[in-house]
């Protein structure tokens, strides 16, 4: 409890609130099965500080992440809050590149679900054949696999691949999203992962897949409610999942 009290006292109210919601989001990922042992990351800008991020401690599983044990770092990976936990170099390479080069990338998410990695391994990538893919018209880009992402020279190529898109399929690797809020980044990556799940199931069946007309997808993307600011732009979705989490476990608030 002393660690919690010390961390809460050292933080601004805005930072502590951000820590609580980020920790909750890690637990939501765990609840959804979007965890990879102690690997992968969700990073969040510290709301009242320049060029500072919150990231999960390397060595803890997602269901062990709490508000107080999240690590505050700068874009070079220097630990700023005295945390005893290290930071995964691979996560730092990917996430710091996006945060440093995309001004409104408040949150960056990266996952390795089975469906997303399977689609990332397909030469044609994402196929527009279902309601979820149809909500991502001209929204997804690709980055060629260069091995484990621990080399700084890959950052420039990754950012060039990302361009002005909020979603990227890392070839042979997984998915990445960035958004203006936690909820925004979440609903983007959820939609893309769901499209990958449907593609994985569809391609296991006999017959030919029924492609969506690009004109329909363009309209469907404009009409997608989960991205609409009038409906929270993903915040309502994430908040609903956090309420579900709260009914069984609130230890992330520590």
Distance between the amino and carboxyl termini = 8 Å
**CATH homologous superfamily designation:** Class II aldolase/adducin N-terminal domain
Amount of beta strand = 5-15%
What is the β-strand count?
7
What global shape is seen? globular
Q: Are there runs of 5+ residues with pLDDT below 50, and where?
A: none
Assigned CATH architecture:
3-Layer(aba) Sandwich
Number of helices: 8
Model description:
With 254 residues, the protein is α+β, with helices and mostly antiparallel strands. The chain is 40% helix and 13% strand. It is built from eight helices and seven strands; from the N terminus they run ααβββαβαβαββααα. It has helices at residues 2-10, 13-32, 89-101, 114-120, 154-162, 182-202, 214-223, 235-246, and strands at residues 41-45, 52-55, 71-74, 107-111, 140-143, 167-170, 174-179. Helix 2 crosses helix 8 (235-246), helix 3 (89-101) crosses helix 5 and helix 4 (114-120) crosses helix 6. It is globular. The model has no long low-confidence stretch (mean pLDDT 94).
């Amino acid at each position: 409890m002393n660690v919690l009290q010390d961390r809460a006292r050292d933080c601004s109210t805005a930072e502590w609130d951000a820590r609580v919601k980020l920790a909750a989001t890690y637990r939501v990922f765990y609840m959804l099965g979007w965890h990879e042992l102690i690997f992968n990351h969700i990073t969040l800008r510290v709301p009242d500080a320049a060029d500072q991020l919150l990231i999960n401690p390397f060595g803890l599983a997602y269901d062990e992440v709490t508000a107080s044990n999240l690590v505050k770092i700068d874009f070079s990976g220097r630990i700023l809050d005295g945390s005893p936990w290290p930071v995964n170099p691979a996560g730092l390479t990917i996430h710091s590149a996006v945060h440093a080069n995309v001004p409104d990338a408040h949150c960056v998410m990266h996952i390795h679900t089975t469906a997303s990695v399977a689609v990332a391994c397909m030469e044609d990538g994402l196929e527009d054949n279902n309601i979820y893919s149809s909500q991502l018209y001209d929204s997804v880009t690709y980055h060629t696999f260069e091995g484990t992402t621990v080399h700084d020279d890959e950052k420039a190529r990754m950012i060039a691949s990302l361009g002005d898109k909020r979603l990227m399929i890392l070839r042979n690797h997984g998915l990445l999203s960035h958004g203006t809020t936690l909820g925004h980044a979440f609903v983007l990556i959820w939609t893309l992962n769901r499209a990958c799940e449907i593609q994985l199931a569809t391609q296991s069946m006999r017959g030919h897949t029924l492609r969506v007309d690009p004109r329909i997808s363009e309209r469907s993307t404009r009409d997608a409610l989960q991205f609409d600011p009038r409906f929270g732009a993903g915040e309502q979705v994430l908040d609903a999942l956090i309420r579900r989490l709260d009914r069984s476990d609130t230890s992330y608030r520590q």
